[in-house]
Structure formats: structure tokens, C-alpha cells
Write a structure and sequence with these properties.
Length: 114
């Protein structure tokens, strides 16, 4: 059956305090949480999640400020949603496929006589 996921609520203030007081501990904890999220995903999705996280980490490392990193990450998100071969395009392809052909039947319907 399905997996049951248990999560603890996100405490923004605690994370903020940790980042201010001990940036190294913050980074270690952030890495642990991200790794747990990736491992909690289906196995076939994990490589893509790792590639995406790698991209995000590179953006963070190469950006002059956290705000610049945030803006660059937002741009990446929108490219993946609205860009070429993005989510919107894929959804439109699925919609065209569904409406293009005759209806598909998943079972043979048997006539019954009275």
C-alpha cells in the first residue's frame, strides 16, 4: 500500500536562530533534511531530485547574496514550469493525446439478454 509519512512542523524561528548562531550546524541540518526528503521519495524520482538539488546548491554558491540566489532559483522554477519542454507544455501534450483519438476501453462489455 502507500507509505505513511510523518513530518515535524517547520519552525522558521528555530532555523533562523540556528543560521545566525551556528551557520555550520545550520548547513549540516539543512543537508540532513534535504537528504531525508530525497530518500523519502520513490526510488525512480531520486536521481532527478539529486540533480535538481545540485543545481540549487550551485546557484547558492555562485550568487553574490541570498536575494540574488533566491531570484535565480525562482527563474529556474519558472523555466521548468513555463519554459520549453516544461510542465505546462507536457500537460498540454497529454491533453491533446486524450482528445485526439477515440475513447479507450479498458474492458470488453458483454451483452446480457433477459
Amino acid at each position: 500500500m502507500g507509505r505513511v509519512q510523518t513530518t515535524t512542523p517547520f519552525d522558521f524561528d528555530a532555523w533562523t536562530t540556528l543560521a545566525q548562531r551556528d551557520p555550520q550546524a545550520f548547513e549540516k541540518q539543512r543537508s540532513r533534511v534535504i537528504e531525508a526528503a530525497i530518500l523519502g521519495a520513490p526510488a525512480k524520482q531520486q536521481p532527478q531530485l539529486r540533480r535538481t538539488q545540485w543545481k540549487l546548491d550551485q546557484i547558492r554558491r555562485s550568487s553574490a547574496t541570498p536575494l540574488v540566489a533566491c531570484l535565480r532559483m525562482q527563474q529556474l522554477l519558472w523555466e521548468n514550469v513555463a519554459g520549453e519542454d516544461g510542465l505546462l507544455e507536457r500537460l498540454q501534450q497529454l491533453s491533446r493525446q486524450d482528445s485526439a483519438g477515440p475513447p479507450r476501453h479498458s474492458a470488453k462489455i458483454l451483452p446480457f439478454t433477459r
